[in-house]
Amino acid sequence: MIFSTTYEIPGRKTQAVLGIASGSTVRARHAGRSLVAWMRGVVGGEIVEYTKMIAEAREQALDRMAEQAAKMGANAVVGVRFGTAEVMSGAAEIVAYGTAAVLEAAPEPTNTG
After folding, report:
1. Is the pLDDT of residue 70 over 80?
2. Which pTM does this prediction carry?
C-alpha cells in the first residue's frame, strides 16, 4: 500500500478513485504517565511518554486506514491527512484519512547493461 500526502505519485497513473478511506483510534492518558508528564512539564522539555503514545496512535490510525482502503480494492491512499479531537477530558482521537485509489503497476526497470 502506498501512502502519499500528495494527490499524484510520480511515474504512476491513477486508474480509479474509490472514495474516502479513514482509520482512527482514541487514546486516554494513563495515571502513571500523567504523573511523569506533569513532573517533566514542571522542569521543561519534551514529554517523551506522550510523544510515544501519539506516535503509536498515528501508526494504528494509518494501519486501520490501510485496512479500509484494501477492502475497497485500493493499492494506494493519496492526499493523506491526520486530525485530532478531544473526545473527553484526558482522551483524544487520532484520525488518518485520504482518498483510496488504484494506481497502475510500477514500470519494469530497464536493463541497459
Report:
1. yes
2. 0.80
